[in-house]
Amino acid sequence: xxxxxxxxxxxxxxxxxxxxxxxxxxxxxxxxxxxxxxxxxxxxxxxxxxxxxxxxxxxxxxxxxxxxxxxxxxxxxxxxxxxxxxxxxxxxxxxxxxxxxxxxxxxxxxxxxxxxxxxxxxxxxxxxxxxxxxxxxxxxxxxxxxxxxxxxxxxxxxxxxxxxxxxxxxxxxxxxxxxxxxxxxxxxxxxxxxxxxxxxxxxxxxxxxxxxxxxxxxxxxxxxxxxxxxxxxxxxxxxxxxxxxxxxxxxxxxxxxxxxxxxxxxxxxxxxxxxxxxxxxxxxxxxxxxxxxxxxxxxxxxxxxxxxxxxxxxxxxxxxxxxxxxxxxxxxxxxxxxxxxxxxxxxxxx
Length: 350
Hints:
Blueprint: H1 6-15, H2 19-23, H3 29-49, H4 57-73, H5 78-82, E1 84-87, E2 90-93, H6 103-117, E3 127-132, H7 138-147, E4 154-160, H8 163-178, H9 186-189, E5 190-194, H10 200-207, E6 214-217, H11 224-229, H12 233-238, H13 254-258, H14 261-271, E7 276-280, H15 284-295, E8 302-309, E9 315-320, E10 323-328, E11 330-339, H16 341-346
Parallel strand pairs: 3-4, 3-6, 4-5, 6-7, 8-10
Antiparallel strand pairs: 1-2, 7-11, 8-11, 9-10
Helix pairs in contact: 3-4, 6-7
């Protein structure tokens, strides 16, 4: 953390005595002021939710506000401080032990839903969605929320190895139904369960017998070196490492470790006759390696690389491993989408 200039601290203190605390974790004074406002709004909303009130509301407000600002000053992610993160139209609860949802993940999730809704007929059979490494459940829940606007029959299953994450995903399901952000049908059509992607028997028990239409995953994909040198202090100290770095193998080759989940995820996609698969990646280099794995299988008719904002910008074409691959959107390489012949109809691809 860079040393804060005394003049900046004096200016911050003259505005609010809590701003110098937030400057320890914020890039500038403007961000610190925004975060102070958000934390204050959060404390106020929690006071309004209480059925019993403290005799001194003002004192209680300032005590809680100071407590949360101290936590934020120590690098605790804002989403853990506030307890939630917007994700599309949803409010995703965030707790230590589950990865905080990112806006780039929201962007490709929304783009996928828009493509499917543009071609899927209302009177079609049940649309079945499998979300592996579900974490908070944000991807599964946002897909359900968007699909349910037009499609009455859905079956969504989210799987994670972490009991903490699955418990939080179930809380997010109930929380968003309670707040009216998800229809009550979600309680019957969305499920979350615990399983290890690398334990074939356990996975077979969870997903066999169903032909899944869509498989999505934001798996651990960060290499050990990238985790140590490229992630922020807040991420390293607070977010679960196992949700970022594959922990299932030891290798001196960082690319092998970072890419460990992709072959297994694609194997399940093929076994389950998935029509469309979307896998998040760290960057363009990793997305390109995922494309190479997809090209080795005859199951997939075609694939694309989606950038951070796939609904924005132009489409670029590159020759990768002897095939023409579209790269869609603006920003860094963020996800790879692949589809079978039946998946082409699901995505309205021509």
